[in-house]
Amino acid sequence: MSIPLRSLSALVLSGILFSTGIASATHISAADVAAKKQTRAGLYLTALEAADMLADPDILFVDVRTRAEVSFVGLPTRVDANIPLMLMPRDAAYDPKKQTYKLQLNPDFIFAFESLLADLEYDEEAPIVLICRSGSRSAKAANMLHELGYANIYSVIDGFEGDKVKNGPHSGHREVNGWKNAGLGWSYSVTPAQHYIMDAD
């Protein structure tokens, strides 16, 4: 059985990363990752590390935030597709403890993800990078995909917006780290290729 070109090149890249020690140089220990951001695969990247890895165009990069976040906050220009893990229901309930509105799991997440991989001719061994706002939803998505047999799922632990400042006048603001704060390429424009596949006509 032949291996799709994209999957083959991704496998070759994985071999190069491990043989040159680059993967170990960017390895982040689970002990250094907040519990809610830990994954079963144990593959973590900071936004800066992800940008370096994603210099290879054959590595898939998926943003799992909601469409509203992508529309109003922006997304990395390098993202291949937006596939929301969670959705904002029309009758979203307010959560007074978190002081925000409750999201619900996207029932089409797995189907949309596997449809994207099929369209791009990726397989279960291809390296895939997931990003969300700050690393929690990407970890949940990584765990779901790991259970389905996807072995090389990386989660960006500081996400697109980064972690919150804990003290001082900017307390509560997401200014600590993350893709946007690192000055990496991002845009408010969602290209036709990046838009959520389930919204296609």
Automatic annotation (TrEMBL):
Residues 55-172 form the Rhodanese domain. Keywords: Signal. Residues 1-25 form the signal peptide. InterPro entries: Rhodanese-like_dom, Rhodanese-like_dom_sf. The keyword Signal applies. SMART domains: RHOD. Pfam families: Rhodanese (PF00581). The lineage of its organism: Bacteria, Pseudomonadati, Pseudomonadota, Alphaproteobacteria, Rhodobacterales. Transmembrane segments: none annotated. This is Sulfurtransferase. It comes from Thalassovita aquimarina.
